[in-house]
Amino acid sequence: MIELQAVGKVYPDGKELFWALRGVELQVEAGEFLMVVGPSGSGKSTLLSVIGGLNPPDEGSTRIDDIPIYDLSQEQRAEFRGDYLGFVFQDFQLLTHLTVLENVLLPLTVSGWDRVRQRRKAEEALERVGLLGKARRLPNLLSGGERQRVAIARALVREAPIILADEPTGNLDSQTGWEVMELFRDLAREGATLIVVTHNPENFRFADRILYMRDGRVVK
Ligand SMILES: Nc1ncnc2c1ncn2[C@@H]1O[C@H](COP(=O)(O)OP(=O)(O)O)[C@@H](O)[C@H]1O
Ligand SMILES: [Mg+2]
Questions:
Q1: What ligand has the least distance to the C-alpha of 38?
Q2: Measured from the CA of 46, which atom of ligand 1 is nearest?
Q3: Which CATH number characterizes residue 143's domain?
């Protein structure tokens, strides 16, 4: 599903260049739950943004479903992201002035689906994460774990086959974090491909495979 070959990414660092990713080789199968761990600054978020089509690498090839995503035009890549990828972040990134349902509807506004179908899909996604009963609330009235589940519903709503999450339990207590991880694990069992960055070893048991990064390299 995902294949990186010899991927390198360089950032300017004053007058120097800093290689945030070096020679990264990675293959992820459909339905796999991969966790990415490593010290702060080791390149985990950069890796996720490269896979997510948000950050063109300076070396190597990045293929998703055999499509070399950085050979696509910006427009094609944006469309590709909408079809293939759902993103979940540490700070949830919900719009606070919109209801739960409206937040989950957002990715569908560009789908071309009619309003009835949009609404049905958004409600299905909220049901999947156990929050259909809170569809009309504003996010601020939800707990942290519930907000993260809304963000997961938003990532799911277009039925993207791949979900990328950057430290999704970083703002949650451990019990709530496990519930989010269990939800991810169940989604992987249902066929989604998941790549989740975490620094919490308690989460490792949910993964099929753990990728250890250090200094921009995959070390294990
Ligand atoms: N946009 C950027 N410009 C310059 N340096 C960056 C940028 N993004 C990340 N870096 C640097 O690249 C390295 C890897 O960052 P990151 O991928 O965020 O690591 P991690 O997520 O593992 O903490 C860090 O040293 C960081 O300072
Ligand atoms: Mg990071």
A1: 1
A2: 17
A3: 3.40.50.300
Q: Kindly state if the Cβ of 45 falls inside 6 Å of ligand 1.
A: yes
Q: What pLDDT does 61 receive? A: 97
Distance 218 CA to ligand 1 centre (A): 15
Ligand 1 contacts CB of residue 20 (under 6 A):
yes
Instruction: Show the domain range for 7.
Output: 2-218
Single-letter amino acid, residue 97 = H
Q: With a cut of 50, list the residues of the chain below it in pLDDT.
A: none
Length of the chain (residues)? 220
State residue 92's pLDDT score. 93
According to the model, what pLDDT value does residue 79 have?
A: 92
Instruction: Give CA angle at 196 (105, 108), nearest 5°.
Output: 15
Task: Count structural domains, the chain.
Answer: 1
Please list, residue by residue across 77-108, b when 16 or more beta carbons sit within 10 angstroms of its beta carbon and e when fewer do.
beebbeebbbbbbbebebeeeebbbbbbbebb
How much is the pLDDT for 113? Answer: 85
pLDDT score for 56: 97
Mutate to test the pocket of ligand 1, among 45, 212, 213 (most ligand atoms within 8 A of CB): 45
55 C-beta closer than 6 A to ligand 1: no
